[in-house]
Amino acid sequence: MIHKTAIVSDQAQIAGDVTIGPFSVVGPKVRIGHGVTVANNCLIDGNTEIGAGCTIYTGAVIGSAPQDLKYKGEDTKLIIGENNIIREYTTINLGTIEKGVTTVGNHNLIMAYSHIAHDCLVGDHCVLANCATLAGHVTIEDNVVIGGLAAVHQFTRVGKLSIIGGCSKVVQDIPPFSTCDGHPARVYGLNLVGLRRAQVPAAVISELKAAFKYLFFSGLRKGHAIEKVQNSALKSPEVLYVVNFLNASSRGITRAAKTPEAEAAVS
Q: Model's pTM, two decimal places?
C-alpha cells in the first residue's frame, strides 16, 4: 500500500494498513497509525506522530522545521490526533524548544493551504477554512470555526464554540461562544448556529446572551462587567467558563463591534 515511487525511511513506524501515494516522502522519526491515507507529493518529517484514521491530501508538508529564527534543530515534536482531514498544501510545523510540541487534536478539518505554526494547540472538532493561518503558540479550543484567509496572532487564545469570519485579523483573545469578524476582529454576538448544533439548551443560550450584553455591550470596563455577571443570577457552567476565560486572558479580549446589528444579536 506504499507506492513504489514513495520514499519511506526504514526507521519510520508505519501501521500495516497505511496508504502512501506517489512521490511522498516520510522521514525516519515519523509514526503513522492505522488507516491513515497519505496522498501524492506529501512530506512528513521530523519527530511526528499521526493518529489513526487521518487523511492527508496532495502536497501537505507535515512536521517541517519551525519558521522561527531561534530554532537550532532541537528534537521537538508534532502530535496529530485521530480522524483528521488535512487538505491540499497544508503546512504544520514542529514545536520549538520553548514549548517543545505542536499539538492537533481529533476530528478536525484543516482545509487547503492552511498553516499551523510551531507550538500551537488545536483542540477537537475544529474547522480551519482555506488559507487560515495560525502564528506560533496559538491555542484553539474545541469546536472552533476559522474562516478562510483569517490570520491569528501569536500567543492568542480562541475560545471554544466560537466562529471567526473570513479575512479577519485576530490580535486578541476570542471569547468562547462568540461570533467575531473584522480587521481587527470584533465581537458581533453569540455563535447561535454553533450553540444550537452543539445542542446547548435554550435556557443556557439565554443566559449567555444576558452575560454577553453585560460583558461586551454595556459600556462597562472589563472588571466591572465581570463583577456584574458574577453578582447576577447567571450561574450556568457556560457563563462561568466565559468569565474564567476573560479573567485568564493575558493578551486582552477582543472588543465588541459598535453596531446596532451587534447589539441586537444579544438583546
A: 0.96
